[in-house]
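Reviewers asked in the last cycle whether our approach scales beyond single polypeptides. To address this, we selected a multi-component target totalling 223 residues and predicted its structure end to end. The input consisted of the following lines:
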Amino acid sequence: EAGVAQSPRYKIIEKRQSVAFWCNPISGHATLYWYQQILGQGPKLLIQFQNNGVVDDSQLPKDRFSAERLKGVDSTLKIQPAKLEDSAVYLCASSFSHEQYFGPGTRLTVT
Amino acid sequence: GENVEQHPSTLSVQEGDSAVIKCTYSDSASNYFPWYKQELGKRPQLIIDIRSNVGEKKDQRIAVTLNKTAKHFSLHITETQPEDSAVYFCAARRSNDYKLSFGAGTTVTVRA
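The resulting structure, written as structure tokens, was:
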């Protein structure tokens, strides 16, 4: 089966600019997750969707981060404006039951 | 919320030896414990998982043990090979909200 797709793979922006990431989960997976992975750390959950509804966004910095999952399939994560500390790999994952499948991630560098 | 601690942060072993990584969790409501392997520049991939109703699970050279009373679980890799070199993450998922919390990771290096 096709895996979780993400784009772009790499992005370099200046601080205060905006950026958007896209994720296409595995077909049929109702649950979609966005994680932030800072270098040398484990992934940290930013937001979790069940179909097109938000289940958990308690760790999403809502003053600058937003995410949506229209029609319960693809999802976008946006950062506006970006800060230096947002430099990280942004991982998207999806699941049907308990196992989460990760995408390749988007490596964001904020200069 | 759940807090997962993982030790050691780095581990170097001779090829053929065993590697053990230990994790502790704080929330007794956690009932699912996966382990992920992440090679440099690649996505995390599930290598083994265990549910709270099981004490041990094996898959070829990999095994995981769980002690619910002490709230800790461990990954055991036997007969290590160079391709086992990677960062390994443990995680714990709470039964009430299915939120997965990750440890900080262990960088395993297998010396030939």
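The interface with chain B takes residues 31, 33, 40-45, 48, 55-56, 91, 98-105 of chain A (CB under 8 Å). We regard this as preliminary and will revisit it once experimental data from Aim 1 are available.
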